[in-house]
What we know:
By secondary structure, the chain is mostly helical. It has one domain (3-145, 157-324). Helices cover 76% and strands 2% of the residues. Helix 1 (3-29) runs parallel beside helix 11, helix 2 packs across helix 8 (200-209) and helix 4 packs antiparallel against helix 11 (272-293). The longest helix is centred in the middle third of the chain and has 43 residues, at 154-196. Keywords: Membrane, Signal, Sugar transport, Transmembrane, Transmembrane helix, Transport. GO terms for molecular function: UDP-N-acetylglucosamine transmembrane transporter activity; UDP-xylose transmembrane transporter activity.
Amino acid sequence: MNVIAALAISMVFVGCCSNVVFLELVVKEDPGAGNLATFLQFVFIAVMGFCTVGKFGTAKRNIPFKQYLMLVGFFWTSSVANNYAFDFNISMPLHMIFRAGSLMANMAMGVWILKKRYPPLKYLAVFMISAGIAICTIQSSGDVKAPRETHKDAAEEERLQFIDWLWWCLGIAILTFALFVSARMGIFQESLYAKYGKHPWEALYYTHLMPLVFWLPTAQNLVGHVKIATETPMVEVFGITLPKQVLWLILYVVTQGLCISAVYVLTTECASLTVTLTVTLRKFVSLLFSIMYFRNPFTLGHWIGTLLVFIGTLIFTEILQKCVAIFLPASAPVEKKKEK
């Protein structure tokens, strides 16, 4: 492993794990700020891409504009839906576990659209991932809490709790929708790269630049949450005083840019197996940190579901099989000699 690859792996853990922390701080301060956080993330990466990849608008595209429109539609929809889910009483651990089910959605889309066939172990892995997500979802359904005061009247409180639960169900539906849109995007991206060649940095730039116009209808929502952010308590950082929520948003955007850049560098320097293993371990570390630092509710059922998801992911990506295969060949020749 070269120095660049090692640095990229360390940046994936530093950038992506800290990014999850800052996103949770943002949504704890303002549960509806997911849309604003996504918008700022897109602006930041688009501006950076305009200066580097786009060379201030002078660089030529390798993939046609029409193809990018389709890709952007998928990418923007999944990104906004994922962050909007926080406005529907979805906790950060459940959000992370749900997004870990992307392999399941990719396989389902592959079977449906590309008519692919997979070995039995792949289906076992998908069953484990699906079961893990289902267990975590069922466990979380009993602990749905909306940010509001408890009502004195018991009947009214029960009615409000039922509304909270319905709101949470809508959040689960949004996460499921985002999962399959993201999987469909992956298949479309795969076909684009097969036809026009791999241009990941260009794709990253255009998928963040072109969707900016989609936020025009949500301008009022963005302004409202900017106002909420500026009204949060002031904090001082390196001699600069600014609202706490503004600080969290800045740190979220910067670490998100670092996270995405590190993953893209990793894909160019390492084999896909190394990339998948790194990203999977990063998700698990982020989940553990979210549970311990933010004291999010996490029962035995959650742990069982989480283990099913991550073991299923390791089987699907063949990491577990390759680890087992390291030890099996060493014993195989000995058995053959004994037979002779």
